[in-house]
Every structure is written in C-alpha cells, then in structure tokens.
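Q: What does the assembly look like in three dimensions?
Context provided by user:
Components: two
Sequences:
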Amino acid sequence: MKAASGLAVTKPAYTTLYWETLLKDAVLAALVAVLLALPLVGLQTYDIGGGALGIRTHFDWVVMAAAMVFGGRLAWHFRPRRRRQGEIGGGPVFARLAARGNRWALPITLAGIAFAIALPFLPFSSRYLIDLGTTVLIYVMLGWGLNVVVGLAGLLDLGYVAFYAVGAYTFALLARDLGLTFWQALPFSGVVAAGFGVILGFPVLRLRGDYLAIVTLGFGEIIRIVLVNWSPATGGPNGISDIPRPSFLGLPFARSAPEGATTFAQFFGLEFSPTQRVVFIYFVILALALVTNLFTLRLRKLPIGRAWEALREDEVACRALGINPTNVKLSAFGIGAMLGGFAGCFFATRQGFISPESFTFIESATILAIVVLGGMGSQIGVVLAAILLVTLPEFGRAFAEFRMLLFGAAMVAIMVWRPRGLLAHREPSLRLTPRPRRARLR
Amino acid sequence: MAYFLQQLINGLTLGSIYGLIAIGYTMVYGIIGMINFAHGEIYMIGAFISIIALLVLGLAGVSYVPLALALVLLTTMFFTSVYGWTVERLAYRPLRGSHRLAPLISAIGMSIFLQNYVQILQGAREKPMPPLVQGGFTVFESGAFAVRLSYVQLFIMLLTLVLMTGFTTVIAATPLGRAQRACAQDITMAALLGVDVDRVISTTFVMGAALAAVAGLMVTLYYGVVDFFIGFLAGVKAFTAAVLGGIGSLPGAMLGGVLIGLIEAFWSGYFSTEYKDVSVFGVLILVLVFRPTGLLGRPELEKV
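A: Here is the predicted structure of the complete assembly.
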C-alpha cells in the first residue's frame, strides 16, 4: 500500500513494477475479504427446529465479496486525486461552502427558513413529506441543544437522550395525572430536564473527556432501565398512550368539539381535515427549533457563552482567569438538558404515545453524530446533517433491512471523508482586532 | 454463607469475561486515546464465529471435547482478529491525528454497521447452543443448598488466568510489548525512535480482538445463547470495568472486570435482577467521583 501510493505520486510511468505492486496490494485486500467473509457470510446458521442449529453454505457470496474488494481496491488507486497537502479533505464544493459560509450565512439561513415555512403549502408537499419534515426538525432542535454541550462547552455527552426522555415522560405524566395540556406542560418539561442535567452534572463534571462520555452513557442507560422497570409510574415497557395533542390557542384539532368548545376548523370556518393538525404540529416544532437556535446564538455572545468556548479551548487558562469551571460546565449541561426536555415534550405530544423503546442509545448516537457530522459548532451544519441522517434511512426503506447497515456505513464514510464535519470552518466568535478588510473585498 | 459462595463463583466467572473484553478497551485507549466503541461488536462477532466453528466441527465429526475446544478457540481467535484489524484499518487509521471526536463517531458508525451486518447474515433470532461441557462438582454443602462449580466455570476462570499470564509476559518482556509501552507513553517520540507506530497499533487491535473472541467463546459455552445485540451491553460494561480499574492499566482492566462481575452477581443475588445494570453504572459514578483516575490508574498530570 505504502509503496503503491509512493509510486502513484511520481507516476505516470505505468511500469511493470508499478502494476506488480498494485496487483499484490489488491490480491492482499481480496484475501482479507475472504477471511472476513468466510465465517459469517460463507457459513450461515439457521434454526432446524427443536432448539438446534444447522449450517448453510454460501461460498458463492464469499467469492463475490472477494472479487468486489479486488476490483474496488484496484479502482481506488486510480481515483482522481486533486487534494493538496494541508487541505481538510472532502470535495471542493463543501470546502468552498465552508470557507465562504460567513458571507453567505445570512442569505442561506433566510432562504432555508423561508423554504421551511413554505414547505406545507408547496404543490408537491404531502402529508408524508410534512411528517418527515417534522422528524427532521426534532433532530435539528436536539442537535442545536446538544451543540451547546458538545460544540460550545466541549463536553462529550453520550447520554443526551436521557433528557429527551425526561422531557417526554414529564409531559406524559403531567397530562395523565394532572390533566395539563401541551402548552402548560412545556415549561415543566424543560425545567425538570434541566434539573436532571444539573443533578448528573454535579458528580461528573470534575471528570475529563472520555470519563465524562462513559458516565453520561451510563446515566442514559440508567434512565432507560428505570423507565422500563418502574411500571406503576411509567407504564413499563408498554409506555404511556393517549397523550393529548397540542391545541391552537385552546382550539383543538378534532372532527367534533366537546361541549362548549369550538374546534380549530369551526372557528375559522374551514372544512375539517386531519392535515391541519399535521401542519400545525410542523409549525410548532419549526418555531421551537428556531427559538432554540436564536437562544443559543444569543447565549454564545453573552459572557457565559464566551466562558463555555474559552473552557473548551483551555481549562487551565480559564481557571487562572478566575472562571469557575464547575459553574460554567453545569450551566452548559443544564441548558443543553433543558432544550432536550423541550424537544422531548414535543415528541410526546406529536406521537401521542411514548415508550422506553424510543430512548435507546442509538438515539443519543444519532444526535451526537448530527452535531459532529455537521461540523461542531456550526448551526447550518447541524441542519444539513439532520436532513442527511433522517432522510437516509427513509430512502433505505426500499431495502428495509439494509437501512441501518447503510446508516452505520455512511457514518464511517462521512467521518473518514470529512473528519471535521460537513461544514467545518470555525470562526473565532471574538476577535481582538476588527476583521481585516481584505477578507471582505475578496 | 453457601449462597454467598455461589454468587462469588458466578461473579468471578462473569468478571473473567468482562475483564477479557476490558483489556481490548484499555490497551487501545492507552495507546491512541480513543474509545473503541466497536469493541463490544467484535466480542459479539467472536461469539458468533465460535458457534459456527462448533457447528462445523460437529459436522466434521470431531467429538473429543478438549480437541474441539482447542480448535474452536484458535479459529475463533484467528477470524475475529481479522475483523479487529480491518475495523482499525478502515475506520480509525484514516482518522489518526484528527480531532478527538472523529474516531469516536466513526466507531459508533462501525458498531451500528457490524450489528446489522451480523443480523442480516445470521438472522435476528437468538442462537441456541447445546452445552458442550456438562457437569461440575459440589464445592460445599450446607443443608439443602449445595454450592456448585461447573466445569465450564472452572474452564473460564483457568483460561482467563492462563491468557492473562501470557499476555502480561508479552507486554512486559517482548520487543512488541516494549514498543506498545513506548507508544502508550509518547507516540510521537516512539515514532521518532523508529517504532513502526501503525504496526504497533494494528497489533494492539488484533490482540484486543483475539481476547474479545475468547470472551465470546466463553459466553457461548456459559449461557448457551447468543444474539446479535449482546455486544452493546457487554461492551459498555467492559468499558466501565476498564474505567473502574483505571483506563490504560492492564491489571486495572482485569480487576475492574472482576469487580463489575461480582457487583452484578451479588446485586442480582441479593436485590433484584431488573436493576443490576443500574448498580454497575451507579458504582462507576461513585468510584469516579471519589477516585477520578480509577482504582489502579495513575493521576494525569496537566501541563500548560
């Protein structure tokens, strides 16, 4: 491999030696493929009844895999190599987009928001599309929330889904036991989730980097296990159903209103249609997500936001400057958790049913992947990554069982292709001197 | 007392398995400072390969149990190591030297990929495996309760002991081990002094995968059921064990594994099985609060 790429730089004399190295390399790769495929692809277990297993052979697949790897490895050597030394990597389009992101940030953002608002009314839009948009927006909101913790404060949180779950269950329980509506319960969900964030934060924030990651992961699992096992309160694995839907200023979305009330359709003199509720829910999450974004953007400019970023860059220097790391980290954790709680509350009202199934580690991983794939700290990047990661499995529905396989492979591939995320261009949020003129004239 | 002894035996068996997986985490973390999230999946693959190897041997008519065990052990270790090597080569090596989160995300993606890969190829149902080694002996009897130590448990503990001894010797006394320790101390300096860093890291992954494969075989023999999802929880617990013992420390990983196994066994034995995983994570949080570097870890000096 090394020899081959070394020669590739000084090519293009396709000497015999060059071909020899190439072929040897491809044969080796194919050999590894055979070794990988032989036990798991070539020999497949299946039930033969009576609690026993049989073995089926599929050596033709092994040969196919080897041939594919051989061909792929050869082709890999002739890939176009335009990448220069020191470049971040990835296609030129994204690199340019990231570099110019600043100039275009405002128009792109406005166009994006306009598109998001117009989406339900566009001619090609359908109920499916609006539902998909709602799901994307939930992940965008979660991504922006987690961005406070991971992107700004630099704390690696692998259990973010715990706060999402706390928010969802807070609303579900308040609705079931006290009869609160979505809008009444929303603040409570945020507050309770933030409380959990602070409780978790206290013991673990003295830890560094990866220790923090594993403890947050453990915390996420603890919450999920408690939800599964504490049946009297949480309904156990069956979850909680019949969670009330949100209303529009007290006007419910229903075919017929209860005594003494009017439905949304009646009030505005419209014909009832279930799409109205779907569209309304879409706008609720759009508003929540935009508020989250504005909130975090403003926070970033406040002293506390600057303290987060400073802490991410150098904790020792922060201490020396008199910043209390524990308080600063706790605030990041609490605020991130609160945003997750809001999203959870929305999730509960949108689904109408929640169970621990929805809050597994894979959700945490997806949200973290959205933040990191988007390019940490980049707000637009989060949107891009959320669209990518949510719609990818949707397209995969055609080959249902392969969709998670593709999802995992895509995560690896994107990371290898652009290790700093899709839009990786970190602008310092604070400059000592004004921006140089040259950059503007360019 | 008898009940206590029984839980102790169960806990030690379980702890041996966790310890073997934990070594893979701690070695990789010690050298390149990343959480190899796909390691739990490597263990799961090891368990599947061991089942397949056992079935193939059964079809080939190898009926002498020690011979069958030895053959299965070797084939499982070999094929699983190839998986460990490939994962490192494809998902981590291209990311070396980039920021800290990149390999972690790549590892999570790899873990999702491997889980679904095995699920699609081998089916989502649990794979039952009739016990290969049966029987055991009674260690101690009090009243109606007899403390049993089965041959499988004995096999697991002894094999772990042998592997640990061999492994410690490799790290302590061979050129390869010296190179690994050098890389763990300072990877740049090691490279400057002529250590082939890429090769050392690859070997580390191969060794970790081989030990995880042994753990996979043990779990197949011990529980008799395997499915494609066992890697996640075992992986998290083994990583917990590595952190508990002090990440980067080999004896620490083993100690942490045994402790986690004991905690789990005693908690299930005396309190409730539902919350046994909560107890493991609870202990982890407590240890980290009072001793952030783990039990045997060295405090990290912070340089400015």
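Follow-up: Residues 17-123+133-230 of chain B form one domain.
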